[in-house]
Design brief:
The protein is an alpha/beta fold and about 290 residues long. It has helices at about 60-70, 115-120, 195-205, 220-225, 230-240, 260-270; strands spanning about 15-20, 40-45, 50, 75-80, 105-110, 140-145, 155, 160-165, 175-180, 180-185, 210-215, 245-250, 280, 290. The chain has one domain (about 10-290): Ribonuclease Z/Hydroxyacylglutathione hydrolase-like (Metallo-beta-lactamase, Chain A, 4-Layer Sandwich).
Length: about 290
């Protein structure tokens, strides 16, 4: 699907990358083009604002939401793939959470129903990264547990959201968002070429946009089995087998600079057969894509 840079038509639905890096934020000249913030995606469908993951990228997203909506109350849905730090570390810096009358609904997986909230709370207990407690957030915030092993399906207005477990140490959920005649799948922290790939293929079948963890090259992935991340070869294979229309490679490794990611993108595009219509991109901070 085209990005906003490629079409003048107003998007029906859109998503914007606010964090595309894995593991740890990597600011600096060498990563300025693709971005150095950890995972965060904003999705706008009708009047719904959905955020996937609260890595460091959620901080600039929060400032942008304040600029856009001013004093108007915000009703936000935060879908958490898992609670590894690069997917929650930005939440203490999310300004809308400190504003009364805003509402934030957090949904995520964890074997214990009450531990999703406790993990968000622990990182703000004064002994870790942040001196201000979770209770200082003035918004109305709720935490809801999703099934960690099987699929969960729920509605958000007219939007259909489905989850799917991924192949990642400690567990992780992928999210599929279906809205009217278009769909988006966020497949973060999934080690490709593992067990039960057919289940993942069925989950992402015919999606318009596949945003997938492509942290490693094939050589890197071979040396890091069990670390729970995708490689370009495996992700291209998933996208082709599932009939995805566009693939955005994300969760860029902190050791990969912009030039290295350029090379990974070029190599990934060569893996796509000429007979395929699959379009491949590297996710870039602040980039808005329509679907």
């Amino acid at each position: 699907m085209p990005t906003d840079k490629q079409t003048d038509a107003p998007p029906r639905h859109w998503a914007r990358f606010w964090g595309v890096r894995g593991s740890i934020p990597t600011p600096g000249h060498a990563t300025a083009r693709y971005g150095g913030n950890t995972t965060c995606l904003e999705v706008r469908i009708q009047d719904q604002i959905v955020i996937i993951d609260a890595g460091s990228g959620i901080s600039p997203l929060g400032s942008t939401l304040i600029d856009e909506f001013g004093a108007s109350p915000l009703n936000l849905t935060l879908l958490n793939t898992h609670t590894h730090w690069d997917h929650i570390q930005g939440f203490p810096f999310f300004i809308p959470a400190y504003i009364k009358n805003n509402r934030i609904r957090v949904l995520g997986r964890d074997p214990k129903p009450d531990s999703l909230k406790s993990i968000f709370k622990i990182q703000m207990d004064g002994n870790h990264c942040f001196p201000v407690p979770l209770e200082a957030m003035q918004c109305e915030i709720t935490f809801e547990h999703l099934e960690p092993e099987g699929q969960t399906h729920f509605q958000l207005g007219d939007i259909s959201i489905t989850t799917c477990p991924t192949n990642h140490p400690g567990g992780c959920l992928a999210y599929r968002i279906d809205a009217a005649d278009s769909s988006l799948v966020f497949l973060s922290d999934h080690e490709t070429e593992g067990q039960d790939e057919e289940r993942i293929v069925n989950f992402i079948k015919n999606t318009d946009i596949l945003i997938a963890d492509t942290q490693y090259t094939a050589d890197e992935a071979a040396k890091r089995r069990g670390w729970g991340h995708g490689c370009s070869k495996g992700v291209i294979s998933l996208a082709l087998n599932a009939g995805a229309k566009s693939l955005y490679m994300t969760h860029h490794d902190p050791s990969h600079n912009d030039d290295f990611i350029d090379g990974m993108l070029a190599d990934a595009r060569k893996m796509v057969p000429l007979s395929s219509n699959l379009k491949v991109f590297s996710a870039t901070e602040r980039e808005k894509i329509s679907f």
